[in-house]
Write a structure and sequence with these properties.
Layout (H helix, E strand, L loop, with lengths): L9 H24 L3 E5 L6 H17 L3 E5 L6 H9 L6 E6 H10 L7 H4 E9 L2 E6 L7 H11 L3 E6 L5 H13 L2 E6 L3 H9 L5 E5 H9 L3 E6 L27 E7 L4 H15 L2 H9 L3 E5 L1 H22 L5
Parallel strand pairs: 1-2, 1-3, 6-7
Antiparallel strand pairs: 3-10, 4-10, 4-11, 5-8, 5-9
Helix pairs in contact: 1-10, 2-10, 4-12
Pfam families: TctC (PF03401)
Protein name: Tripartite tricarboxylate transporter family receptor
Keywords: Receptor
Length: 330
């Protein structure tokens, strides 16, 4: 059917447009249901985000009835994966599983990131929050942040490096805050993701690192690293004995980072809705919730609108922190 938009009555014209767009969306949805879904991840295999993506991808495959292929586009703190999402067709075949760094932080700390989340992406749904934490390696006897600071002063002459998964990230700003609060000279050591950083911590090549709970939790439980502080307004359920930075006298570290799924802007709303519903079903599975919780996530489904609001609020919080720090975009 061909609609004549110029001659049609305004009401009929509006109705025709709506029906046409709905039909287009449903057609794309039907096509998407028979085509593998690429789930982009901005970090290497073995990292916490990768493990989360593979856990969800396996279950989404069952719910949606199509293969879900996790595609690692590691590098630049998720920037490469975000650029790949922007370049992907808005046909429902490509999604991006990301935490806050790629969406809320990168565009503020990189001059030309190659994407704009506000105009290039659309949130599908959120599924968890988590905490960035400071962990010390077996190369130091410290069991608290105060003991670590004392060790740096007495054994390192007040100077040390702390590993971070990516430059110009929240962990880098936390390193700066630690340095300023305790009057010690600690500098960030950027890595290409948390996996190589953790490997160096386990080998005692670096004595401390800052990353997410999922990146450290298993080694913390095994006693190979020791988490000594976390962000957030309250202690993490998986780390009841670890104080928050707020408890330790730091400010503006109450908002928790998020995890969510994004699609290219222009992806038909029926597809967005379908994927959101599928994610909600997956998160309701007891084994999935238990596994993600064990990884250090606070699991909770957030529909598109609610999740979009979280992203905006979190971005604004860190915009203020970054600007007040005097940081110059790279």
């Amino acid at each position: 059917m061909v609609f004549s938009m110029q001659r049609a009555h305004p009401v009929r014209r509006a109705l025709g447009v709506g029906l046409f767009l709905a039909a287009m969306g449903l057609t794309c949805l039907a096509q998407a249901q028979g085509t593998p879904i690429r789930l982009l991840v901005g970090f290497p295999a073995g990292a916490g985000t990768d493990a989360i993506a593979r856990t969800l991808g396996e279950k989404l495959k069952d719910v949606l009835g199509v293969p879900v292929v996790v595609e690692n586009r590691a590098g630049a703190g998720g920037q490469i994966a975000a650029q790949a999402l922007k370049a992907a067709p808005a046909d429902g075949h490509t999604l991006f599983l990301s935490h806050d760094h790629s969406i809320s932080i990168l565009p503020q700390v990189v001059k030309n990131p190659g994407f704009n989340p506000a105009t290039d992406f659309v949130p599908v749904a959120g599924f968890a929050t988590f905490a960035n934490v400071l962990a010390v390696s077996g190369g130091t006897p410290a069991k608290s942040i105060d003991e670590y600071v004392k060790w740096v002063r007495t054994q390192r002459g007040g100077k040390e490096t702390i590993g971070i998964p990516a430059p110009a990230s929240i962990p880098e700003f936390l390193v700066k805050m630690i340095s300023e609060k305790y009057k010690i000279d600690v500098q960030p050591a950027p890595y290409r993701g948390s996996a190589p950083m953790t490997a160096d911590m386990l080998g005692n090549q670096i004595t401390a690192g800052i990353a997410s709970v999922p990146d450290f939790i298993e080694n913390h439980k095994a006693g190979k690293v020791r988490i000594v502080a976390s962000i957030g307004a309250k202690r993490q359920a998986v780390l009841p004995n670890v104080p928050t930075f707020t408890e330790l006298g730091f400010s503006n570290l109450e908002d928790l980072p998020y995890y969510g799924i994004f699609a290219p802007v222009g992806t038909p709303q029926p597809i967005i809705d379908k994927y959101g519903e599928a994610l909600q079903k997956v998160l309701a599975m007891p084994d999935v919730k238990q596994k993600l919780t064990t990884m250090g996530l606070t699991v909770g489904y957030e529909p598109q609108g609610q999740f979009a609001g979280r992203v905006r609020s979190y971005t604004q919080t860190w915009e203020r922190i970054i600007q007040s720090s005097g940081f110059k975009p790279l």
